[in-house]
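From the pipeline queue, job 12 of 40. The input is one protein chain; the requested action is below.

Action: predict structure.
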Amino acid sequence: MIEFTQIVRKWVKPEDLNQHGALFGGRLLQWIDEEAAIIAVTQLGTVEVVTRYVSAVDFVARADRGDLLELEFGIEGFGRTSITLNCRVENAVTGEEVLRLDRIVFVAVDDVGLPLAHGRTEPTEGTERLRS
């Protein structure tokens, strides 16, 4: 794994709940996919990325209304056209793990959707790759 960590925090609000009063799993996956895509975009220097793969989803604890969640992302590596991330979600107050995704793969694509080599091998901390 490459040394890189980014943490995003989310409140679980009433509109995020399922019929059982817990965080709707689809909402959490939406948050993860969106934040992971933003990381992929800033790392690869292009807004033209697509989600290629997400590892098995295993919810190990529930999150309830009012919980503060931390979505912690890391970079597993760079491929010729891809970037592989991981994500661990935990309750920021209790420290209890809610979900872990070992691999989330994004691929840079050209204007017709074909994989495009990006030339990146090391992470950046900022958004400068988008401005070049």
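Job complete. The first strand starts at residue 2 and ends at 11.
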